[in-house]
Amino acid sequence: MDHFSTDGHARNDAMRRVLLVLGLLFLLVGSVWADGGTIRFQGDAGTFHVTVFTLPPILAAGVIDVTVLVQDRAKLSPLLDANVTFDLIAESAPVRGTAAWLPPACAMNPPPSLTGIPATLGHGENRLLYGTYVQIPYSGSWNLKIKIRRDTENESVATLLSVPPPAPPALAYWQLFILPPLCVLGFIANRAARRRQKSRSPGVQELQNENSAFPVGEGD
Questions:
Q1: In the chain, how many domains are there?
Q2: SS3 of 208, please?
Q3: Residue 169 confidence (pLDDT)
Q4: 159 by DSSP, 3-state: which?
Q5: With a threshold of 0.85, does the pTM exceed it?
Q6: Which residue range is the domain that position 161 belongs to?
Q7: Exposed end of the chain (fewer CB within 10 Å): N or C?
């Protein structure tokens, strides 16, 4: 029975290692795309205190996640009844004529409009943030203007985004391509554990034969 126990532990340990790697991978991907991101602007506008975030942390032409935290300037309490929109204005010509990409490896179509883009409250898991996805058509300098309206007050803030050319699809969406190899590694680890179990089976059979040669009486 000790051999069976050892084989079972070896197989379970191999599977635990694979699951641990997969869990760490998904945790890494989740942290990369978590709420918030890199702070692009933080300051006051009228009675508002505004903080602007973008994801991914290193921008590139393509889709970015823009979120905004709107607070009362005096109390710093979140304001959840504002109307927030984004304007994206090109400050320079494209650095290169390389089109941005979207999965599954198809060129991104230019957005219909880069002004008046509405931001939704609770865009991500953080219910205090206004946000939406914004498509940057090409690399260069872009002026991101955030307009905030609440009751009769209208304010706006702006920040300059320096956007490099888009990365190739294989680099931009590495998290989509790494899962199949990890599944293959898990399968290989499982098969290796099973082969080790089979290689030890003759010894287990001999031990069982020896035990059967000396039966224990009922009176013992």
A1: 1
A2: helix
A3: 65
A4: strand
A5: no
A6: 34-167
A7: C
